[in-house]
């Protein structure tokens, strides 16, 4: 018997979103929705008795509609990597982010919906999705900005399922993601993603950071500062530190994370700006 | 519950508890080349190919493989007729204790199917989920590069 779900009694494979929601509601706290299942390795769920698998819900497509990339919640990061096209700055940013997220075998299991629903300080893709201003589609219909989701936390879903992520590439001319860990694909100690948009004659910047607080955050003051005269990592660190109180854990203390984040933001902006100027 | 899949190119059905992991199912059915290492997706000793892509079978619940195709190291080559990757691993001295080797070989196989001419960086990236605590990685990358070169040579008319 598995050690990750030792009390599991039933594995449901619904084919409709409403069916999955009904199963989750009926099962209550001992029923869990399963995307890729990678989190089970880190966080065993000893009390789970029923699992609702997402693999037959039909939310596993990657499509492009007008200027929006639509990613089904069950799409694995490995598959997303192979579907992204390099002609788009937004998609290049997503590819670079995906390739820094975990190892190859894990990326072939992790789903886009799973990494968003299970967001933590170490998460990579939500940082870039926040910088890009992505939207989440809930239950195949309602739209929730990822910024709202990340600000309020998973409870804002109120039982709804993330079925799709929508990323507009309208106006995106450059983007970059950086993170620091023990190696290329380690859980992030700190990370940053910066996107440069072109609106008429004027560039607009969106920037997000990860690793410092429980969920990735966007700091408007940081974006205003980036748009001004060049800034070094130290000054950016002080600015971020004036807005957030970074967490500490055995892997890194708060001041170290702040210093990493400040440097990541400045370096990211330089890379994004260079790409936008090409 | 009953699960029907294809294993190493042949139909394969098995009964499993809902929470059973794929690695346990495979080993219980005699496919001992799939190793149980960390159990948390860190080491890659349990890597198998699921629909052609490497995954950590310690994190895959058995019901999730319904209708899918699995390749284990036993499906790649045999002692009597080893796969070129297996031969190159042996020739390059890329095997010491051997515990990581099945996962390494399968990850490399998936890479070469997708990219027949990888450079050393691409090989290292493809093997980023497979840990070896004996050899270091130089000879392992050498072996994959040699297998890729051999494959290209054999494909020439």
Principal-axis shape of chain A equals: globular
Mean pLDDT of chain B: 96
The largest sheet of chain A is: 5 strands, antiparallel
Principal-axes shape call of chain B: globular
Classify the beta-strand content of chain A into a percent band.
15-25%
Q: Assembly state here?
A: heterodimer
**Relative helix content of chain A:** 25-40%
Secondary-structure element order of chain A, N to C: EHEHEEEHHHHHEEHEEEEEHHH
How many beta-strand elements of chain B? 5
Q: Tell me the span between the first and last alpha carbons of chain A.
A: 56 Å
* Low-pLDDT ranges of chain A: none
Tags for this model:
heterodimer; A: alpha+beta; 11 helices; 36% helix; 23% strand; globular; B: 157 residues; alpha+beta; DNA polymerase, domain 1; five-stranded mixed β-sheet; 5 helices
List the helices and strands and how they pair.
The complex is a heterodimer of chains A (278) and B (157).
Chain A: E1 10-12, H1 17-27, E2 31-34, H2 39-42, E3 50-53, E4 62-65, E5 68-72, H3 77-83, H4 89-99, H5 104-107, H6 112-117, H7 125-132, E6 135-138, E7 142-145, H8 146-152, E8 162-168, E9 172-180, E10 190-199, E11 202-210, E12 217-218, H9 220-227, H10 233-243, H11 254-277
Chain B: E1 2-7, E2 10-15, H1 22-28, E3 47-50, E4 53-56, E5 69-71, H2 84-92, H3 101-114, H4 120-126, H5 138-155
Parallel strand pairs in B: 1-5
Antiparallel strand pairs in B: 1-2, 3-4, 3-5
């Amino acid at each position: 018997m598995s050690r990750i779900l030792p009390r599991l009694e039933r594995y449901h494979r619904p084919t409709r979103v409403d069916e999955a929601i009904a199963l989750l509601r009926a099962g209550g706290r001992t029923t869990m929705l399963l995307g890729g299942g990678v989190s089970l390795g880190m966080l065993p769920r000893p009390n789970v008795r029923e699992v609702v698998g997402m693999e037959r819900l039909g939310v596993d497509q990657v499509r492009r509609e007008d200027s929006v990339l639509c990613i089904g919640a069950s799409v694995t990061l490995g598959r997303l990597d192979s579907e992204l096209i390099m002609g788009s700055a937004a998609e290049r940013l997503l590819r670079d982010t995906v390739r820094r997220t975990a190892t190859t075998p894990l990326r072939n299991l992790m789903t886009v919906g799973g990494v968003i629903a299970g967001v933590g300080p170490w998460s990579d893709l939500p940082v870039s999705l926040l910088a890009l201003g992505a939207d989440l589609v809930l239950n195949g219909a309602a739209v929730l900005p990822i910024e709202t989701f990340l600000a309020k936390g998973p409870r804002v879903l109120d039982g709804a399922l993330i079925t799709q992520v929508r990323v507009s590439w309208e106006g995106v001319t450059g983007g970059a993601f950086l993170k620091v860990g023990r190696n290329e694909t380690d859980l992030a100690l700190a990370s940053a993603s910066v996107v440069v948009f072109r609106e008429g004659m004027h560039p607009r910047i969106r920037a997000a950071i990860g690793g410092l607080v429980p969920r990735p955050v966007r700091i408007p003051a940081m974006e205003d500062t980036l748009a001004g005269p060049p800034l070094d990592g130290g000054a950016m660190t002080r600015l971020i530190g004036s807005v957030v109180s970074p967490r500490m854990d055995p892997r890194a203390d708060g001041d170290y994370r702040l210093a990493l984040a400040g440097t990541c933001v400045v370096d990211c902006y330089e890379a994004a700006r260079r790409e936008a100027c090409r | 519950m009953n699960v029907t899949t294809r294993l190493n190119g042949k139909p394969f059905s098995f009964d499993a508890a809902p929470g059973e992991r794929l690695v346990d199912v495979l080993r219980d059915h005699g496919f001992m080349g799939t190793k149980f290492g960390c159990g948390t997706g860190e080491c890659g000793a349990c890597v198998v190919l699921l629909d052609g892509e490497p995954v950590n079978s310690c994190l895959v619940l058995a019901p999730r493989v319904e209708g899918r195709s699995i390749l284990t190291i036993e499906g790649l080559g045999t002692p009597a007729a080893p796969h070129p990757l297996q031969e190159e691993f042996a020739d390059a001295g890329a095997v010491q204790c051997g515990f990581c080797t099945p996962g390494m070989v399968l990850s490399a196989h998936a890479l070469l199917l997708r990219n027949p001419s990888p450079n050393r960086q691409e090989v290292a990236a493809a093997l980023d989920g497979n840990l070896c605590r004996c050899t270091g990685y130089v000879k392992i990358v050498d072996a994959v590069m040699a297998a890729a070169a051999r494959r290209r040579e054999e494909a020439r008319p």
